[in-house]
Amino acid sequence: MHERPCAPHIFTTCGVPDPATTSSPEPETRHATRRTEVHRPTASSRPALRGETGLDRDASRRRRTGVRMRIWLLLSVLLLPLAGSVDAGDAPPPSADSVLQAAATRVETGDLSAAAEMLQLLDGQSIPEAQRRSADLLLGIVLARQGQSDEAAVRLDSAAGDALLGDYALYHLAQVQRSAGRRDLAADALQRLLAQHPQSVFRDRAGREMPRDLLEAGQLAQAEEAARKYVAAGPSGAGRGEVGLVLGEILLRDGRADQAEEVFRRLWIELPASPESERAKDLLATIPTALPFTADQQFQRAATLYQLGRYGPAIPE
């Protein structure tokens, strides 16, 4: 029996008979051939080659998984210390604006202690000067309401340098000094207010209150000057009566009873419906040389009361 040359496109191993050109062998030969075909497969379908390809894919997957694990571990090592260092104690402090707003809300609700604690937290922070002075102003007002005059005065004096809110600070500073019995310092704060803030909404109040503070401080010359300056500006209403009464008291304390009598008499006639008018009448009674009111003076007073609609008090006059 002759063998044909190998057909490369069908068989990949030479020496394997071509079934199409050979006669059927005996059963034993056929079994042997089958065993040969089973145990000697072609190169294109060898299990070893298929196994090698699968191992390559498995190895590639394992390498990718290993790379991902190493990246995850590296990130964990880098990020865990950072996460551990961020806690409530390292949180940034609230802004100065938020503290001021919160403190103002506490003041409105009457919780002065909480407002003071909030504002005092800003002492340890580096904040803009304008916000620092605003905090000092609000804290000074809070401390004054709590009766802490000395601490309030320090805060308000610090806030007095603010170009926008300085007049508020100075006016409240004068009130604090007055309540503490320091009338000279109260007058000084009002003088600063008038000099530094000529357009302030507190200008009239400062002009009205300063003569009394100077009088109580024993500075009679300065008190008289301040009172006459205010009256000469032509104010009307309560300010005129208040400062006029102080002027009369200044003159009376300075020993010029005749001039004091003239001031008190004018107040009683020209401002008959005011509390200062009644006070002027009482002070006139303390002057031994004071003359009684004339009929013309009483009529003038009655006419003023009538014009004001005070008909009852006008009748006895």
Structure, briefly:
Helix content is 68%, strand content 0%. With 317 residues, it is mostly helical.
The share of residues in extended strands comes to under 5%
What's the number of helices? 15
Strand elements, count: 0
- Tell me the name of the CATH homologous superfamily of the domain at 96-199: Tetratricopeptide repeat domain
The ordered H/E elements are HHHHHHHHHHHHHHH
Low-confidence stretches: 1-51, 71-88
Quickly give the CATH architecture of the domain at 96-199.
Answer: Alpha Horseshoe
CATH class of the domain at 96-199 equals: Mainly Alpha
User: Helix content range of the residues, please?
Assistant: 55-70%
State the distance separating the first and last CA atoms: 167 Å
What name does the CATH topology of the domain at 96-199 carry? Serine Threonine Protein Phosphatase 5, Tetratricopeptide repeat
The structural class is: mainly alpha
**What's the overall average pLDDT, rounded?**
78
C-alpha geometry: elongated
Write the layout of secondary structure elements.
Blueprint: H1 27-39, H2 47-85, H3 96-109, H4 112-120, H5 129-145, H6 149-159, H7 166-179, H8 183-196, H9 203-216, H10 220-232, H11 238-253, H12 257-270, H13 275-284, H14 295-307, H15 311-314
Helix pairs in contact: 3-4, 3-5, 4-5, 5-6, 5-7, 6-7, 7-8, 8-9, 9-10, 9-11, 10-11, 11-12, 11-13, 12-13
